[in-house]
Amino acid sequence: MAEIWLKPEECCQLLGLSKRHFARVAKDWKWRISDQPARNGRIPREYALSALPASAQLKFAKGEQQTAVAKPSNVLPLFAKAEEPAAPMVALPEETKDAAHQRLEALQPLLDFRRRTNGHRPVIPLPDGRQVDTLDDLTEWVAAQHRVSTRTLYRWLGRFDEGGIAALADAPRKDKGQSRYFASHPLAAEFLRHKRLNEALSGQMCWEALLRDWKKIGEPGDPPSYSTAAAFLSTLPEPLKVLAREGKEAYERKCSPYVQRAPVDAMAWWISDHRQFDVMVRNTLFAELRPDEPYRVWFTAIMDWGSRKIVGWCFAPSPSSRTISSALRVAALDYGFPKNFYWDNGKDYQKVREQLEQITLSPEAAAVLDREGVTRVDVTSALPFHPRSKPIEAHFTHWSKRFDVLWRSSYLGNKPGNCPEAARTAQALHQKYLKGKRAASPLPTDAEFILAAIQAIDDYNDKPHRSLQHRTPNEVMEEQYPERHRRSANPRLLDVLFGERTLRVVRPGGCVQLDNMIYEPDDRSLIPMDVRRTHSVMILRDPYNLGEATAVDPETMQYIGSLHIQELVAQAPGGRITRDQIQAGMRKQRALRRGYGEYLAALGAMATSLDWRTEREELVARALANTGTDARTVAAAAPGASRALPRERRAAKPSQPAFVSDAVAADAEIFREIRIEE
Predict the structure, then answer these.
(1) What pLDDT, on a 0 to 100 scale, did the predictor assign at position 76?
(2) pTM of the entire structure?
(3) Which CATH number does the domain 269-480 belong to among 3.30.70.100, 1.10.3210.10, 2.60.40.10, 3.30.420.10?
């Protein structure tokens, strides 16, 4: 535990002594040479906080600023009520701070008595009229007041003499969060991990398999109880369980770390993508479809990255280069063209067609570029099969949760399994309408739907967003790129917060969020932090150095890893720097997944080498063993199997020999001399 060193002036303030008197009193105290010289060039001394009297240490822990000069008195402050500390105690966990404070208050009479003993025994009058002049008598009286034994008080006193007030707190258990049983039975622990992770069995089935194969595993002693096994399985790291039981896709969605992009200016980047609404409508606008034909509308959107504003859109039965050109025209008429485009790579545009149409600018869009005087617009493609690489996906999620669900009778759900019954009923009624059996259709028209969608876009652009500091996209666009100036303005916001210790929950990739900043671990601390996902850690940070932080266990204060502010990915024209940074983030993702995958593979290899059979193999083996036929299936196991066997064929009568050419005999003589090696 780190020692606290104080200057002589601070010690005098805590003790209420002059410098000369303090120099005489602190002659034999623990001290060291200061690292910083004084103004006069001399190197002063620094004194350890643990060497000061208990009252001074308590005053330092409370954070008192005023000095209280101790006046000689024959009555000790035994019944003084302890004040709540105004600041956190130094190097002391929050849950043990109150207990240490109460123990120090109980020791205060003993410490004062020992300090007053200067060659003679002081006589202390007690509130009950008795007088004590020995430390043992005073200890007995104090122990009775606090309902503890004298041995406990002496033990506290010894701990205080060795480490000060911090030593009075109970140290947390070193094996907290660990199973002592499975620490002495490592093979049983790996067996449970294998059953739980690689076979995806429940905790009950894992424990039953352990009981069945206990002798085969070869561990000494009796098998553990179910509660012990369940408690051990609950300590498995969350990323490891997700990867083993839910698969790679779920792991990347829930546990994989991700990069955070830096903010960009308005009109610097435009993002474009397609989305198909989860609402079934009937056609009244498009000639390529039959009248009243049911279909789902496709939405081609262009969003300004800096302001989050939807600047262009197009609605059509299917996406194509023309829908992009139409959306670009809508946007260019009002805002011109940006410096860069960030588009989808085209592989996820059409999910139902086997061949996808390449998304490119049509000749109409090229003509618009020529009229605007723009000779070149850089286009960057997003990562394939990686939805989080496109910021517009968050906007599409907004549509899915706030717009699609409004069309309840024709809302199909976000996947086929979630299709409401009302939607299936509406489609069946629409089929009757097409056949002339109904006068009206419950499905809305595409004209009504598109009109409502355009109004929803206007509402979205006028709605405050948390990511924009509760401003609207229209306000941000007008502020950074006003129509009269057409010049970007990127205001910078400062958000400086001070704090020494903060409890935070570990996020995917071992990252923690603190003061709107993401701190990520270094390469050595990546695995130790990632296995603590969804758990709380204590973040220690120097308020004068916000770039670095340290993560420790909140209970044991043990070191976990080093953190630093996550580097923001700058979206550069051409995409070279951006691709390198994204590839670095993906390498970190693969390293984490590879580490967990190698562990799962090691479990599987261990199970194979130790002949740990799966539950299916065990079940089949027991079933065959119960037949009593040495693993051969009997006829009783499959009734009717004997009747289904083909009958033996009768011996056929010898027929006339077939015609054999003379060349066959000649060939036989030739091949007779040929020998084939064994």
Answers:
(1) 40
(2) 0.42
(3) 3.30.420.10
